Amino acid sequence: MGKRMAIDHMILLNRIRQGDESTFEQVYNDYFSSLSVYATSILHDPEDAVEVVNDVFLNFWENHERIGSSIYMYLIRSVKNRSLNRIRDNSVRHKILEDYGKEWSICHDDQDDPLSGYDMKNLSLRIYELSDTLPDQCKKIFNMHFRLGLTTNEIAKILEISSSTVRVQISIALHKISSLLQEFKFEHLQK
After folding, report:
1. Ramachandran class of 19: left when φ > 0, alpha when ψ lies in -120 to 50, beta otherwise
2. pLDDT, tens digit, for every residue of 129-140?
3. Residue range(s) defining the domain that contains residue 177
4. Using CA atoms, how far apart are residues 52 and 41, in angstroms rounded to an integer?
5. Around Cβ 108, how many Cβ atoms within 10 Å?
6. Is residue 180 within 8 Å of 133, Cβ to Cβ?
7. Separation CA 153–CA 144 (nearest Å)
8. Residue 74 belongs to a domain with what CATH number?
9. Residues 6+ apart with CB under 8 A from 167
10. What is the CA radius of gyration of the chain?
């Protein structure tokens, strides 16, 4: 980085740290496209990528006083981490339905079974009914994560608890709901 660019970067960084909205807008306009391309290369979904980049910029603005020495490195690292978290969270969110769906299709080969579509539609409703049986904190975290699509870090920030506590509560919820779904599956296998 040339001396002039380093000076310009330091000026931008200081203005950001002071909460200068026009400088933030300039940084947003300068980096948005390249960060979106980078997020798309990770997520393979342009809409998700734009959402991730906008979330990163929101977080960037909310924490502008604590930005380190490089705006670009902060943004690129944040986009990478948030993109990977999105992949992980989406994988966990769909795991119960996918696992149940695979087991259901193995046990029910009959394409003409009129109840099969009904049962799969009912599964989602059943999961949410089962979530009502969870302890209050566990239920709240489950709903924030699976119904609202919030990440563990977002939930931790909102509830003012650690991310590890959120992950443990999600794990507890998934374990309890999986156990209850086994009963649901058994009932339908008996039919």
Report:
1. left
2. 778 888 899 889
3. 108-189
4. 12
5. 16
6. yes
7. 11
8. 1.10.1740.10
9. 152
10. 22
Total domains present in the chain: 2
Structural domain contains residue 19 = yes
User: How does pLDDT run across 143-158, given as a tens digit for each residue?
Assistant: 888 777 788 888 989 9
Asked if the structure places residue 23 within a domain, the reply is: yes
One-letter amino acid of 70: S
Which of these, 33, 61, 63, lies nearest to 49 by C-alpha position? Answer: 33
d(CA 178, CA 172): 10
Cα–Cα distance measured from residue 172 to residue 187, given in angstroms and rounded to the nearest whole number: 23
Does any domain span residue 184? yes
DSSP tag of 133: T
The verdict on residue 90 lying in a domain is no
Show Cβ contacts of residue 87 under 8 Å, excluding neighbours closer than 6 positions. Answer: 42, 43
Residue 3 amino acid letter: K
Q: Which amino acid is at 135?
A: P
What is the pTM for the complete model shown?
Answer: 0.51
